[in-house]
Specification:
Length: 192
Amino acid sequence: MRLFLAVYCAYHLGIDRRVAFKILQPNLAVTNKYVVELFEREARLAGRLSHRNIVDVKDAGQTPDGIAYIAMEWLEGRSLEEALSNLGRISFKRAIGIVRQIAAALEEAHSKHIIHRDLKPANVMLIDSPDGSDQVRVLDFGIGKVIEETTASSPVSAVMGTPQYASPEQLIVGDKLMVARISIRWASSFTG
């Protein structure tokens, strides 16, 4: 879906602050109803969530020209993927601090019956803070799932996201979740 998206730094006059202005590129997405559905779903799901570790959605809708958009808080920092790529590995203490914040974000989402389905280092932002500590924001609920709104046959119930980071809920083999696989993948992300 990223091929259909563009994110800009913009200024929201209504709230008098910079925002990340994410749009569906109309020349690519206008004929793809599935992509439009996922984009609108992201706005609705993220808009339901209010937590210090989840990106804050400020507004969503369509421009007068029919371009779908989501306005979110502007984040200064880098993705966890970028940080790990630059550093190779991070300390155990730092990794635990990051994972705790990711878990807090997921706890909030799960309390609203929302499963992220594409949680990976590229969808976790590390925000610059004055004291140098990591402040985490989880992004991109575009392929998230609301448990009671979907059925096993609906498109948003399909296995989605990046396979090596897929949520355990999607990786049921028989009656066993593939939790160990997920844990190992995340651990290897931190240790290089």
